[in-house]
Fold Asp-tRNA(Asn)/Glu-tRNA(Gln) amidotransferase GatCAB subunit C.
Amino acid sequence: MKFEKKDIEHIANLARLELTSDELKTYGEQLSAITAYIDQLQNAPTGEVIADAPLHNIWREDEALDWSEEERERALSQGEREGGLVKVKRVL
């Protein structure tokens, strides 16, 4: 796929980038080369390729488990509590 200048300008605008005309040309060429390579990969013969590992879902179903009163008290005794829940430090 050949990217034109207006395509690169649109992508740069979406990314809130201010590009010079040289950068527009360079990125246009690079993106065109990347999509050409992806097209080559799409057309690669893979019919006889054998999967290395069987495909299966490794995730288990999410189910709530009941805690004994002792486990609940032990968990709730750790750190601060807020509204019956354990308050922890912010992760993100």
About this structure: The helical segments are 5-14, 21-42, 69-76.
